[in-house]
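Let's practice the habit of predicting before peeking. Look at the sequence and jot down your guess about where helices and strands might fall. Then scroll down.
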Amino acid sequence: MWNFLLSFFIGSAIGSSRIAQRVVKPVLKLLAIGVLFAGVIYTYVVFHALSERSQGHHVHTYTNR
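Done guessing? Here is the structure:
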């Protein structure tokens, strides 16, 4: 997998045909950038939810004394 990813970004995994250079390669690069961007958003949301959950409650629960 790592060999494919490295060769993909270097440019030898897709091939040297004109269709691969003009269409497939840019589409795969956009897909890879989109996956990375979605991962960053997901990581932000998860860490934000964890930080809010670890804070104390702002509204105290009702106690009947």
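How did you do? The two ends are 63 Å apart (CA to CA).
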